[in-house]
Structures are given as structure tokens and as C-alpha cells.
Amino acid sequence: MVRVTIDQLTRIEGHYRIDTQVNEEGVITEARSSGLMPRGFERFLEKQDPRDAALLTQRICGVCPTSHSIAASNALDQLFGVEDSVPKDALVMRNIHQSLNMMTSHVTHIYVLWAPDLVNPAYRDLLGNYGAVGAAVWKEFLGRYSPISYRIDGVDIPPGEAYIRAIREKRRLHEAISLMGAKMPHSVMAHVGGVTYGATVADIGQLAAYYWKTMDFVEKYTLGGIPPETWLENTHLATSPQKAVSFVLNRLQELTDASLVSNDFSYTAGWGDVPLFAAFGSELLGEETLNLPVSLKFDRSGGYNDPGKIGFLSYGVYYKPELGDGYDPTSPADSRVIPSGFMNGNFEPERFDYTKIFESNTHTFYVDSDADREPFNGSTEPESDPAKIDFETAPEARYSWIKAPNYGGIPCEVGPLSRMLIMGEPLITGLVQLFREKGYPAPNNYLRMLARVQEVLVIGAQFLKWIYEDLDPNGRFAVPTDLSMAKDSRGMGLWEAPRGALGHWITTGPDSKVTLYQAVVASTWNLAPQNSEGIPGPAEQALLGTKISAAENALGVDYTNPLGILHTVRSYDPCLACAIHAMDRTGKHKEWKRVV
């Protein structure tokens, strides 16, 4: 048995450690997920004016601040008792704001944080065994996805074309957000009772221009020449999951038939980033279906061994404009464009019930007498004895600053894959069915990445509807509120960040000041340690049984290049800034308890 520890994992947001035990066959048998910084953001808000939460909680994360501002605003709407009267146009503005941030985050993760793993030297060595086809595919990987300041064997590699273009699209989308929110990150638009700014007719035209330029990138580079509306018509709007999968397979077969003759896998030949990944990322689709000579086998890793110990969760996101003013803060499935819901490990759906959300501190460095707490009774009391903060301890001990959320006692994967499954998205649902029928793990790392791409396109179509059909520039964008309305109250904000389910909970006292604030965020769900019942968190479970080296150890076991760990954990798009937060050590704020 070999211990393989990655400390710290790079190309994610924040400070994170993965500790594994790997057997002589190169299979991971134990895994521990550890957040490396104490969480204290909730304490920052205690005794503060609750209205500040929509601004301050954005500082939790610079990648998805919009999600936090809207989750906080949702909680404040209920706290102030105005959730049923927030104007429809304010809700549409929140949708627009959130959709731009979600598309930005997904583009960043796909191209800048995850894709550079495709130019790991192990894949050069693997593909080099497959003649002209392998050489052509490696050339495409290197020319598209190489990051800035990258070297192989002492040779400088220029940044990849897709990598650089994606950064430009990220900037473009940030400009679109700033058009409404004054800046990005940390916009100033979402607020209790609505928004601070309503888009003008000129703004709508500019938003559309930003969107279409980004879709030009998606069409030419991401999809390989297929217009996004054509892709959606044949996948997301397909009449069955089987037809959605058939459309993709037929397209891949056309490309493969031509390129196995020419050995041309370029953008010019129609091999956009999605077709290239879809064909060569999957053993089932690439080797078994398309008869390609090689694949990276991402569909073999990142699954869950015990369906009884995992679930898939969505709080629901994007208000439905056709429902008019106001919304239900409990997020019934029929009230959101992407619905709320829960699926167990056998993909059986259930109605979402927010009262089943709990957090455990049993295996964290927080002090808590209760095994599990619901968020309105949450606790963030850090261990004050440095001697008891030890990341090297046994698995049954405390080993992380990340809490362990659960839904009715079950850890849950959250994020694009869960959202697409719960909404019944045909392409992703069809692929899950196909993988299960053929004996492959589902979900897997391959599906998580395809779900993220598909969600960008689904959201994009909704974005056009919101700006062209649902938004009235002459409408109302806020209802008046007064601090006294928050006296002895509480509110819950259920929303979705790019990485998954995001909830904010707040209570106030007789002076209307904050008495409790708790944020249960996406990366807390995905990267959780064991819960109070000893069930590992989703990322820990997904690592168990995963082979540590490239393409299922195709080149042998290499403990020094643990691509199996990197691919699996990064498939969740970790954001440790959301899951854990620094605490005050200056002594200037005596009311904030701190690690000493």
C-alpha cells in the first residue's frame, strides 16, 4: 500500500488537500478530503445590519459572487417578509445576472482549470503508441489546452488557442455583468426586495451583443461548427434521451469516418472541443462505439460504489417570469426554470424538502456537541487548541475545516450533473442510461464535464428569452423595505451556484441585527469529509476504486503522476473559498472568536 497525498491541489480556488491510500494495482482504497483553512465568514456577519449580507457574502468567493449575493438576497427577502412581492422584472434581472456568472464560471472551469490536464506528458506517451491518429490527437490537445508558462521536458510550450480564447470570453462575460452590476467580481445589483438597477433598452442591446459574440466562440470552437440552436434542438429539445444520444453519436461517427482517413482532428475538420472530448474521453463511445484505437477512459473513473450512500441534489435556480411577482422561498420544483429535487444513488427522483438539510462537524476541526444540525441552528465554533488540528490523523478522527452536509443523512453530489439529471435533460439522462446499460459507472468524470458544457447551452437559450421576452425596462425593480421589518425574524435563501446547491440562512434579534448566519455551499457538499454516520463525502467516495494513473493505468502505475486523483477531484470544480474562510487574527474584532 502506498500513501499518495496532494497538498495542495492546484488549478482550483482555495487551499485543499487530498490524502489517499493506493494498492499495488494502482487502485485507490482510502481517501480523505481536507479543507486547509478555518471557516469564519458567518461570524463576520453577526451583530451586523442584515441588509449588508447581499454585499458582504459576495466576498466569500470572487468566482461566483453573484450566486452568493442572490442567495443572500433571497434570505433577506424572507427575513423582511417581502418574498411574495418582489417585482417580476427584478427577478428577471437576477436571472440574467446569475446566468452570465454561471456561463463565465463554466467556461473558466472547462478551459482553464480542467482542460490543461489533457496536456499532461502521460497522454503524450499514451497517444504516441497509436501511430498517426494518436500523434494527431496529441497535437490538438497541445495546441488547444496548454496553459500559460507550461513546459514539457524543459521545452516551453505556447499557450493553447482554446485556453487563450476562453480567457477572452471570460472577460467579455464579466463586462456584461458589470454593465448591470457596476463591476465584477462583487457586483452591487442584488438587494433585499429586488435589485438596485434595471436594464435599459440600450443595455438589452448591449447584453445581446455580448452574448452573440460568446456564442460565436461556442459554435466555432466548442461545438465545431454546429450552431448552438441546432445542437439544443437535437439534444436538449429532443423527444427522447435516446434520440439526443443518437444525434451526438451520429455526428461523432461522421467526423470519425473522415478523420481516420485524413488524420485531421482540427477545428477546421469539425472537431470542436466537445466532439474531441466526447470521442476520445470515453472508452464506451470512443473505442467500443466509434472504433477509435484509443481513449482516455474518463468514463471509467469518478463513480460511486454504493448507491445507498450517495444522492444528487438541486435547490432549483432561475425564477419563472410567467409566475409574476414574488416567489416561494422553499423552492418547489415547478417554481424554478431548473427545478429543485433529489435523486438517490439509483437515479430515482424525489420531491425536494429543505427540512432534510443538515450539517455534521463530527470529522471537522469545529467543536460541536450535536452530531447533526439544521442550518437555522448551525454552529461554526473552531477548535482553539492547535495541538488538536492534525491533518495526519487516522480516518476516524477529525481531518478537515469543511463541514459535512447531508440530505436526510445522505451525502449528495451537487452541480451541473445533478441539475441536468433532476431536470431530466435528455442528452445527459440518455448518456447515464447508456453507461449503466453497458456496465460503466454512472455518474463518472466524463459525464460531469459534458453536463457542464450542456448547461452553458441550456442557460444561454434561457438568457435570450429573459432579455428579449420577459424583461420590461419600464417595469418595477424593487419594493421598499425598512430595517424594522427584520425584527426577530429569519430567512432562508435557496439558490444554485455554478458548482451546485447554495443556501444561506439568517436570523435576527429584537434590534433587527444578525444573530446567526449560516452558508451551506456547493463545495461543502462535494468535498465534505465523513458525516456523523461515517459515510464519506462525494469526492471521497468517487476516488474509491479509481485508478491512480493515466487512462486507467494504461501505461502502468505511476504514483508520482496521480492523474486519476486530479481528474476526479477537479471534475467537481472545487471552490474552497466558498467551503472555508479565513478568520480574524489581528485582535481588532474581539467579538470574533478566532484560532489562537
Please name the defining characteristics of this protein.
single chain; 3-stranded antiparallel beta sheet; 4-stranded mixed beta sheet
Strand and helix map with partners:
Blueprint: E1 2-7, E2 16-22, E3 28-35, H1 41-45, H2 53-56, H3 65-79, H4 88-114, H5 121-127, H6 131-145, E4 150-152, E5 155-157, H7 161-181, E6 190-191, E7 194-195, H8 201-222, H9 228-234, H10 241-262, H11 273-280, H12 283-289, E8 311-319, E9 336-344, E10 349-350, E11 357-360, E12 404-407, E13 412-413, H13 416-422, H14 426-437, H15 445-470, E14 490-497, E15 500-508, E16 514-520, H16 522-526, H17 538-543, H18 550-553, H19 563-570, H20 576-579
Parallel strand pairs: 8-13
Antiparallel strand pairs: 1-2, 2-3, 4-5, 6-7, 8-9, 9-10, 11-12, 14-15, 15-16
Q: Can you count the helices?
A: 20
Average predicted local confidence, pLDDT: 94
Q: What is the correct CATH architecture?
A: Orthogonal Bundle
Number of strands: 16
- Report the C-alpha radius of gyration, rounded: 23 Å
Q: Return the domain count.
A: 1
Judging from the principal axes of the Cα atoms, what is the shape? globular
**Biggest sheet character:** 4 strands, mixed
- Low-pLDDT windows of residues: 589-596
Report the structural category.
Answer: alpha+beta
Portion of residues in helices? 25-40%
- CATH structural fold name: Cytochrome-c3 Hydrogenase, chain B
Strand content: 5-15%
Rounded to the nearest angstrom, the distance between the terminal CA atoms is 37 Å
CATH class: Mainly Alpha
- Specify the CATH homologous superfamily: Cytochrome-c3 Hydrogenase, chain B
Spatially, the strands of the biggest sheet line up as 10-9-8-13
